Structures are given as structure tokens and as C-alpha cells.
């Protein structure tokens, strides 16, 4: 399997596949522990882009088009069974852009899309970009987001390793904006953090513009990184979706992907 794709527990006989896309600066390790809580009829794949974790010394992408161009050829082989896309923050936008490219090529699409901790893709993440700031100012921004442990921020050697990745991811997050009017027919779930001062309910509702079915918006305890602070509540939401999909996908429907 490609180094882009982390599969903590292969389940070739699973009914569904869950593909997860991490937030800016994040990696597959956010999702791999989920396998212990997820339904046993789902196979988990977590995306591991260059510049992080086992790929730390590879150059990270700082452009959405280049990232998607490298990732896209790897995805069709994962769509041989019903698939859910889950993205958190920047990961939601990466997952959405990937889905638009799949549709443009007439390839199979996910049967459910989960956008987590993110504005709709038509809205820039920030009007004032931060990825190009001097190190001290950039690290202040990181501290304000509350997603980087203070011990890491205060460790000069670690930050020298992580800053290129963080800047690259932030550049994608802060410059990407989707301008097309394409819409999708699959169900949409949107997750938000109750104490997230960055992403409002109105921001979460922005995803509705691209999906024909009404969005199911769920607000969970925690700030922007509720995915890390309350993973059990997130996986509970995911398991609910898996259960609904399993009930709606009789053997005949599932077999069309086989």
C-alpha cells in the first residue's frame, strides 16, 4: 500500500471503508486509534501526506492542486466498496476537493461525507494570512489555536522540524477557496466544537451549498480540536453513520461495489 495510506487494521471483508483526512499539521495518528471504537464492518484508511510522521523528511505540499494531483490516482482502488470521507479542518477541504475531482472523472463517489471543524469550502479560512509571518508571530498564532502542545512550541529543535510542514499546510488552508457550483447527492454530516471560537455554526452551515440533502449538523463539546479532546464522541457519531448506511445498503446494493 502507498505511504500516503495508513491502514492500521486491514479488513478486506468489511462492508464499508472510512477514509480520514487530518487537519493542518496533523497526521494519520489522529485516526488510527479509532479502529478500537469503530464498528467491525468498516475498514479505516488514514491519509498521510508528505512532511509529517513517517514522512517527516519529505517536502510537504503548499498547494492544494499539487497535493490532490499526487493523491487522486491512489483513491479509485479504495472505492470498490461503499466509502465514507471524513475530514477535519483543512482535511475537510482536501476531502471535498478530492471528491470534486472524482466526480469530474466519472469515478465512484463516497456514500457519505463528514466535514468536521471547518467552514464551507467556498469561504477562505482567513482573510489575513499567517503562513508567511516571522517565526515568533507564526508560533503565537499556533498557540492561539490551541492545537500545538506548549512543550512543543517551546522546544526550538522540534519547532525547526515542524515549522516547514505547518507553514505549508497553513498556506493551503489560508489560500484555498472553492468557486464552482457543483453539488453532491450523498448525505452530509457536519461536526463542530461547542467552544470553537474560529468556526461558528454559520460557517458549518456553509457546507450545505454543495449537498442536495439537508446537512445533519452536530455540535460536540470542545474547541477546534474536539477531534483530539473528545475522540470517543466523534467515533460515536461515525458509528451512528455506519449503522445507518449498513441498514440502507442491502446485499444487492453492497454487491455493486464488489
Automatic annotation (TrEMBL):
Highest taxon above the source species: Bacteria
Domain Thioesterase: 17-240
Pfam families documented for this protein: Thioesterase (PF00975)
InterPro entries (alphabetical): AB_hydrolase_fold, TEII, Thioesterase
Protein family (similarity comment): Belongs to the thioesterase family.
Protein name: Thioesterase
Amino acid at each position: 500500500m502507498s505511504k500516503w495510506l495508513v491502514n492500521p487494521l486491514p479488513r478486506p471483508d468489511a462492508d464499508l471503508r472510512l477514509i480520514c483526512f487530518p487537519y493542518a499539521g496533523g497526521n494519520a495518528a489522529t485516526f488510527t486509534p479509532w479502529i478500537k471504537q469503530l464498528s467491525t464492518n468498516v475498514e479505516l484508511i488514514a491519509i498521510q501526506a508528505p512532511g509529517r510522521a513517517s514522512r517527516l523528511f519529505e517536502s510537504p505540499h503548499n498547494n492544494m492542486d499539487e497535493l490532490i494531483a499526487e493523491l487522486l490516482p491512489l483513491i479509485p482502488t479504495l472505492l470498490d466498496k461503499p466509502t465514507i470521507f471524513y475530514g477535519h479542518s483543512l482535511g475537510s477541504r482536501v476531502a471535498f476537493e478530492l471528491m470534486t475531482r472524482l466526480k469530474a472523472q466519472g469515478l465512484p463517489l463516497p456514500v457519505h461525507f463528514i466535514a468536521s471543524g471547518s467552514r464551507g469550502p467556498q469561504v477562505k479560512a482567513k482573510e489575513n494570512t499567517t503562513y508567511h509571518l516571522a517565526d515568533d508571530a507564526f508560533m503565537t498564532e499556533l498557540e492561539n489555536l490551541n492545537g500545538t502542545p506548549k512543550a512543543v512550541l517551546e522546544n526550538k529543535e522540534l519547532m525547526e522540524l515542524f515549522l516547514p510542514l505547518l507553514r505549508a499546510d497553513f498556506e493551503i488552508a489560508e489560500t484555498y477557496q472553492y468557486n464552482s457550483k457543483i453539488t453532491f447527492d450523498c448525505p452530509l454530516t457536519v461536526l463542530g466544537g461547542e467552544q470553537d471560537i474560529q468556526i461558528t455554526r454559520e460557517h458549518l452551515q456553509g457546507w450545505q451549498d454543495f449537498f442536495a440533502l439537508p446537512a445533519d449538523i452536530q455540535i460536540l463539546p470542545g474547541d477546534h480540536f474536539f477531534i483530539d479532546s473528545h475522540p470517543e464522541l466523534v467515533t460515536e457519531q461515525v458509528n451512528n453513520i455506519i449503522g445507518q448506511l449498513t441498514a440502507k445498503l442491502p446485499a444487492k446494493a453492497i454487491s455493486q461495489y464488489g
